[in-house]
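Justification of computing resources. Each target in the renewal requires a structure prediction run like the one illustrated here; the chain below, 327 residues long, is used simply to show the kind of job we budget for.
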Amino acid sequence: MKALVYTGPEQLEMQEVDMPVAGAGEELIRIDSVGICGSDMHAYLGHDDRRPAPLILGHEAAGTIVGGARDGESVTVNPLVACGECPACLAGRDNLCPHRQIISMPPREGAFAEFLTMPAGNLVAVPDGVPLSKAALAEPIGCGWHAVRLGLQTLGYTPDRVLVYGGGAIGVGAALCARAQGIGKVTLVEPNPTRAATLRDAMDLQVIRADGLSDQSQFPLIIDGVGIEATRASASAVAQPGGVIMHIGLGSASGGLDIRRLTLQEITFTGTYTYTAQDFRDTASAIFDGRLGSLDWMEHRPLSDGARAFEDIRSGRCPAPKIILSP
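Resulting structure tokens:
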């Protein structure tokens, strides 16, 4: 089969690779749509030791089962494989399973390919009439669903407003999930003017630059979908007393937090990783029934154009929050 293979920093090549073979309890999936994630970009730049070359990246996927009892069924893929037996899994927190694996990290190859194998329990059926390109968004949007759910749980109430950093798929997904979970006013911080204009026009979001915030700006819930020193510093400054900062982004490892203010104002800072299996299913359901909007803000490209797509994202030339590749 053909696959887009990461061969080294800033190097992606279309190659012929071996077909995957479904094992016991697994299904073979013909990939229809797969999104480019920020973690794929980190690997592409050589910044992720967890993803050594050569490797097939990509974990935001949807496609069609080939063979077996479910032949022809359209599915979206939960790429996080957990053991199902540890205390975290039994508590419904399978995203924290110490034995977890995710496709696009060894030993599991990713979905920038024509075919993929996955455990049957990681597949969510897609109803007729739902494009697989939209179903593939369950993975990145699921991160936002999980973060918003945990943030509301920590706050103990549903606030009237939320601040989200980042106009990529993670931030946009968190903004849409906040609306779907009952928060009325969503403010999104995005510095790229081209992308900001797209978000305003396509999703009717209030989009500002970080310098549009001040110390008088106060938010009970903040979602950081970027995760760099500057966004953590800004979030520290504008979280209201007793507020909650949910940190999804993995842009940089340290810096920015005002620990003194977090302590004196009893602000909660929580790291949030992916989603539970239930969060993934809930996100998929919200996509299928339209609670997350039209989801028509993607850009579609063939998998063979994947290397150029990575270059365009890196250079800031892509106005869309998400590029979807199709083998």
